[in-house]
Design goal:
Layout: H1 2-26, H2 32-57, H3 60-76, H4 95-98, H5 100-122, H6 126-147
Length: 150
Amino acid sequence: MMNRFVSTIQITLVSAVLLGVESAQAHEGTTGIVKDRMDRFKASKESVKQIKKALKTKDWSRIQKEANDLQQWASEMSNFFPEGSNGKPSEAKDNIWSDWEGFLRSVESYQEGTEKLVQASNNKSLEATATAFKATLKSCKSCHNDFKAD
C-alpha cells in the first residue's frame, strides 16, 4: 500500500513541477496580495515535496516542520483572497467570490487535513501520517479543481 501511495505522490509532484514552470512564467510582474498568495502556494508545494521525501526516511523533524507550515497556511489562506483580487495574472476563478461559502468549506477541509497531518506526525505514526498526507493532498486537488483556473 505504501508503494502505491508513494507512486501516486510522485506522479502528483511531477505534474506540479511541470505546471509550475508554466506558472512561473505567467506570474512575472505580479505584485501585492496576488503575489503574496502565489508565493504562499509555492511554499506549500515545497512543503509537500519535503514531506514526501521525509516520509521515505521517516524524518519526523522535517515532516513535523512542514506539516506545521501547511497548517499555518491553511489557517491564513482565506485572508489572501480579498474581493477584487482576481483577474490576470491571478489563477483564481471568479467563483471564489461568488461562492465564498463553498470556498471557505474547501479551505476548512484543507485545515482539517493539515491538523490531522500535524497530529499524526507528532505521534510518529507512519501509516497515519501517510493517510493524513494523502487526505491533505486530496483536499488541495479538490479546491484547485473547483476554484483555480488552469
